[in-house]
Amino acid sequence: MTLMVVGLSHRSAALEVLERASFDATAAAEAVSALTASPHVDEAFVLSTCNRVEVYSDVTRFHGGVAAVGEVLARRIGVPLDELGDQLYVHYEDAGVEHLFRVACGLDSMAVGEAQILGQLRAALRDLHETDRGGGTLDRLLQTALRVGKRAHSETSLDAAGASLVDAALVRARDLVGPLAGRRALVVGAGAMSALVATTLGRAGLDVVVANRTAERAQRLAAAVGGRATGLESLRAEVAAADVVVSCTGAVGHVLDVAVVASALLDRPQRPMLLADLALPRDIDPDVATLPGAHLVDLEVLGADLAGSAVSDDLRAVRTIVAEEVAAYAASLRAADVAPTVVALRAQARHVVDTEMRRLAGRVDLDDATRAEVDRAVHRIVEKLLHTPTVRVKELAEAPGGVGYAAALRALFDLEVGGAPGVAPRVVDGPLSGSVAEAVGRVS
Question: Is 421 a residue whose pLDDT tops 50?
């Protein structure tokens, strides 16, 4: 596998760019189809969350892969690739594996330690299987990343290592309206993020109202947090009654526009309202921030509030876990590269022994018992001669650069390893990690 990651996140791009780059399931499937039609990309999947859009691919050439993925992202965002280059980042081979493992653990999230990314990875893995793309290199990578993420959360207290986006919004709300106990909160949406929001608001003592297009989902979430459910047709009245509004529907287009919020504010003069938009694409029209009494915060603002807030022993422990898992994964890939060579060497040895035994049978008259004993003796000799080099080449393969020992073995014994996975030489002609701007500029 030659893994390449090309993407943009809250660390590299403005929220407006991330919003335009967001992929729904249909767009992601179209992107994968376009990429795998390229001669440079064998497999791909898209990871699109509220603060990142990344394309993971198994590529045959670095520059060709960068160009193919970059063009897909540029088309999605609607800008020329050369204008987007500085906001994109690329990670290659081991650096790409490390990046995915960090993402799976929540180390690269706005709210460090959040576990929702694991749900996104499960969805990507499920999509691979549902579209008959499972069983390949990215399937194995995703399964390993999920295991690493679960290990980080089960072996440490990473979940509590950093303040969540909701906690950051609550800090803003307290600064704006004062003590929150007994205040009204409106949660727009009833998905996984909304459940986290509603639970956190309820624990903070707010009266929670859940508004959602699907009444059953709204009622289920409201019941779980001791709140009340309503439909989107009552949105204007519920906004007017709320001191804190948090929206995270994942809908296309604004759920709360300027007209609705402006009308709601007429019913609450002199009472400020905090509106937190945790969705991407955004649920709340950014122009709401211009309305008197409306205080709008979004992912970019809350992410800045959280910056530098999560430095702990747990984070150091998770970084150690990631380093261990990256090394183990790289070693397993190198071992997989060597395996076909070992198989070919043993197959060649068996062929030589069988050929010589047939020749001996034609020249010497041996009874069946004697022939069987000679055959066993010769095979034992060959096995003993091959044991040390095959064991050593497997051990050496686990170290960086160890695949070279397998290449030497193939050359020494003139082995043919036809089309075996991982045996063909990899073409590494680009940086391991960094911006894609320079790489894109060098693509002919």
Answer: no
Taking every pair of C-alpha atoms in the chain, what is the biggest distance, in angstroms? 111
- 50 catalytic, yes or no? yes
Cα separation, 112 vs 103, in Å, equals: 10
Percent of the chain exceeding pLDDT 90 equals 45
In this structure, the strands spanning 244-247 and 228-230 are unpaired
Nearest Cα neighbor of 128 from 108, 117, 142 is: 142
Is residue 140 packed enough to be buried (19+ CB in 10 Å), middle (13-18) or exposed (0-12)? Answer: middle
Strand positions, DSSP E, 34-161: 41-49, 52-59, 89-92
By CB atoms closer than 10 A (0-12, 13-18, 19+), residue 443 is middle
pTM for this one?
Answer: 0.68
**Closest to 54 in 3D by CA, of 141, 148, 169:** 141
Catalytic residue (choose from 13, 21, 50, 161): 50
SS3 168: helix
Alpha-carbon gap, residue 193 to 181, rounded angstroms: 22
